[in-house]
Amino acid sequence: MAALNKLSAVEVRAKGPGKYSDGGGLWLHKREDGGAQWVLRVTVHGRRREMGLGRLSDVPLKEARAQAEKWRAMVRRGQDPIKERERQRREAARPENTLQNIALDAFESRKAELKGDGKAGRWFSPLELHVLPKLGKIPVEELDQQDIKNALMPIWHSKADTARKAMNRLSIVMKHAAALGLNVDLQAPDKAKALLGKTRHIAKNIPSMPWQEVPAFYATLEDPTVTHLALRLLILTGLRSRPLRHIRLDEIDGDVWTVPGESLKGRKGKTEDFRVPLSREALEVIEQAKPFERGGYLFPSSRQGVISDAAMSRLMERRGMPERPHGFRSSLRTWLAEATDAPYEVAETVLQHVVGTAVQRTYNRTDYLDQRRVLMERWAQLVTGEGAGKVVQLAR
């Protein structure tokens, strides 16, 4: 190897314009205008690279040699010192790399995949409520399984589903941090799961009403109010609360309501809309609701926006009922199984469930609209008391 430390401090100050080697790839470049700087020449993966180490006025000879040795050591390990320095500069320029900041950055990056850009807060709330108050100020590179375990232990069994979501979000945040070039333990969430053990929580289904009792309940929704009309249409269509509450008049064409794909659960990142056949009773409910229309929305709130998710639930609570609006989807699905000969694919599509593998759906692109139209008309007849006890048969 070429000799090192060829220059002396006196020579560095005295030499005129030109390029002078100190050995080991370290050069001093002196310009005609009196300026001077240090340059390190290295070869990385067969490529000749030059990196500036600073001006002579700022970096004395001793410091330039120390820097040169640091970067040469990195080259010996097979790393590119220029890329590493850029990474360090980017990291230094970032806000403090706490879990709070990295989690917010990860959330921003994922908003396009979430319904309504995540404005409902459901993606971020498990972190915001149960993780960040305890761990938010910890640098993400220092986060370990014990920290995560201690944060989630209070809800691990009592709120198992929330804890599971929080752990899932943490895994995403850690991967995001790694993508930013931070040295994080990607296995920390899995290690924390091992420390916490299996949850004792038993998931409970949302209480639903036997389909035979739905007509009697439907008959009690006789007031021409937004809440009564919305609950009636929810029962008649089998839709989830969100698309039902956000229904717009311009989405209805004849007896078909086209629900925007972004409103449907389980259809993240996709643009497919979903067609809902409207029975005669459903169309009548929509007519009764039109006088309440505001801003294009059929079921507006008394203040602003649309009717809240809890409005229909509170109606059933006030009546002392254990069932909840979402349970009518189970009532409908049980009726389809017990009182019709609807094929599995058709019955599942009624509830907007995705059926089959991605490959199967590529070739089978029907949404069974005509078959569903027959079923939903008969469901409406049952609900209104017209078709009790009748078995629905679909034409083959």
From TrEMBL:
Keywords annotated in UniProt: DNA integration, DNA recombination, DNA-binding
GO biological process, one term: DNA integration
Molecular function terms, GO-annotated: DNA binding
InterPro entries named in the record: DNA_brk_join_enz, Integrase-like_cat_sf, Integrase_catalytic, Integrase_DNA-bd_sf, Integrase_DNA_bind_dom, Integrase_recombinase_N, Phage_int_M, Phage_Integrase
Keyword DNA-binding carried by entry: yes
Similarity comment: Belongs to the 'phage' integrase family.
Name this polypeptide is given: Integrase
